[in-house]
Amino acid sequence: MTSFTPFASLAGGALIGLAAVLLMTLAGRVFGATGVLTGAFLPTGPGDRGWRLALLAGMVTAPLLWRLFAGAMPALSVPVGPLALAIGGLLVGVGVTLGGGCTSGHGVCGMARLSPRSIVATLTFLATAIVTVYVIRHVIGVQP
After folding, report:
1. pTM for the whole thing?
2. For the chain, how big is the Rg over CA atoms in Å?
3. N vs C: which end of the chain shows fewer Cβ within 10 Å?
4. What is the phi-psi region of residue 72: left when phi exceeds 0, alpha when psi lies from -120 to 50, beta otherwise?
5. For residue 144, what pLDDT band results from cuts at 50, 70 and 90?
């Protein structure tokens, strides 16, 4: 059974959208999480590392702030082992490389700009996710 969390999902999506708008407004940059991470370690120009490190620091400290105010971290359940997580991470890395960006860059910023490349990439992400869930749950039989 999958948990349905419309309010938490809406709040999270609104925060991601707000972050994307603020980054574009304040720094003139498109928000793509993998691009931010990559550029923090391989900066493309002078002054490019600082804002990336600040954004990454916010991503890391936000859950800690949640714990401070909510009293506990949200419960997480990972129905697969470390090997499956590692393989999934590698597949995501390959997909990000082949797709020229990640779901936040293409799905949030690219779609908002009506970028044809981002529309195709986002549709590919969604189709792949649908097929993957179907195969894992209904063909292989792994349930969360």
Report:
1. 0.73
2. 17
3. N
4. beta
5. low
Tracing tokens 């349930």 back to the chain, one arrives at: 143
- The span from the CA of 101 to the CA of 96, in Å, is 5
Q: Does residue 2 have a pLDDT over 70?
A: no
Q: Domain segments of the chain: what residues? A: 6-140
What confidence tens digit (pLDDT) does each residue in 117-126 have? 999 999 998 9
Residue 42 token pair: 């391989």
For 67, which DSSP code?
H
Query: Rounded to an integer, what distance in angstroms lies between the CA atom of residue 70 and that of residue 106?
Result: 32
Rounded Cα distance, 119 and 130, in Å: 17
Instruction: Evaluate whether 40 touches 53 at the Cβ level (below 8 Å).
Output: yes
Helix (H) or strand (E) holding 41: helix 33-41
